[in-house]
């Protein structure tokens, strides 16, 4: 049974309204991990440095035997990486505390909760199985009214575990107080896509199956494993990137215009899209691909083969590149293939969504040089808009050339983790992922995962620093894509 969408949010009885400045405690579970140092604490530093969230107390917890001084050095170092200084940042560092704890034990959780003051925000920077056990322990002991929960992806390890965790969380707090984090939904990314689509008359009328040939959502990077074997070898590219991040981007590109950008409207629009999404033709053998990198040089660095990286079990067959073609069976997008792809250790960074338009019905005889269709490109790193169009070239006016028109999106005030933290502190879940949407994301990818586990899709290889394993899945035999 899938969790039901939440009722429209309202204020919590006896607590200040969302956005009111009250004392708050951020309880960071898993504070000694890589996520906290690399992304979460720098995001918090930038948020605090802007003057937001006065009266914030930070409490870190982990299994390591650290003291307050060592923890404060970690916080200060993370703040320094983003230039977060000033009296408010210094005060958060000075008052921050660290508590060594096993957060799956009720007595340890009770001890942590007694240290928290004001409104409580709990961030689970933990592996999925530990998150589930911690949430179950919290359900047994209870939480203060108004507590907000922030959970890092992946949310669960499959549809069953995600549904189970949703059930536990529903016993803890209302749905609008659960913030399932996807930093791809940092406000600038969301607003860039929605502003481009729904505030411009020239784009939105042609973003449909009558005019669009296909849509690519790609996140390719030059980085290899980077010491993340403990997490990554149990997840792989499909779960790490496609199941969470790229499906959310697909939903933003394919959704209809919401009346507002409130959480109720925005998350409801994304949910409609994902409910209509499935593997192209119901055939994950034909329309998915997996591969992993072998030794090579990427971005000037020599990388060993993924199977030879420390901490990797080569027999597990974890992929470092995943690609899948999906159908969005709505009135707007029926018949348009969406290709989602993410890979590591590739020749260059490519982080963008590309809308490829159909060719014109006919190019008049006498015009030459037409080779490439028009494309709309939405970049995520850097945040940039590009439009590839065919125009009459210099010299011979009858010969067409393709040019690229580009414009940079305005940068956000905060990094993505600063934005999602602000949403939790202010009680706005618009940038978080709703429970039913998470379950649908697992439903979409599980046929692919099952096919891969059965060995029906071979694990290909590609040298680090290459373009990956051959042609795209979007170059099928003639007419094959129409049979969706």
Automatic annotation (TrEMBL):
Pfam families listed in its UniProt record: G6PD_C, G6PD_N
Catalysis: reaction(s): D-glucose 6-phosphate + NADP(+) = 6-phospho-D-glucono-1,5-lactone + NADPH + H(+)
UniProt entry keywords in alphabetical sequence: Carbohydrate metabolism, Glucose metabolism, NADP, Oxidoreductase
Gene3D superfamilies cross-referenced by the UniProt entry: Dihydrodipicolinate Reductase, domain 2, NAD(P)-binding Rossmann-like Domain
EC identifiers of the protein: 1.1.1.49
InterPro entries the record matches: G6P_DH (IPR001282), G6P_DH_C (IPR022675), G6P_DH_NAD-bd (IPR022674), NAD(P)-bd_dom_sf (IPR036291)
Enzyme type, top EC level: oxidoreductase
Ligand binding (NADP(+)): 102-103, 153
Any GO molecular function: NADP binding
Pathway field: Carbohydrate degradation; pentose phosphate pathway; D-ribulose 5-phosphate from D-glucose 6-phosphate (oxidative stage): step 1/3
Residues at the active site: 245
Binding site for substrate: 183, 187, 221, 240, 344, 349
Gene Ontology terms: biological process: glucose metabolic process; pentose-phosphate shunt, oxidative branch
Annotated region (Disordered), positions in chain: 461-484
PANTHER family: GLUCOSE-6-PHOSPHATE 1-DEHYDROGENASE, GLUCOSE-6-PHOSPHATE 1-DEHYDROGENASE G6PD
Family: Belongs to the glucose-6-phosphate dehydrogenase family.
NCBIfam families: PRK12853.1-3
Name listed for the protein in its UniProt record: Glucose-6-phosphate 1-dehydrogenase
Upper lineage: Bacteria, Bacillati, Actinomycetota, Actinomycetes, Micromonosporales
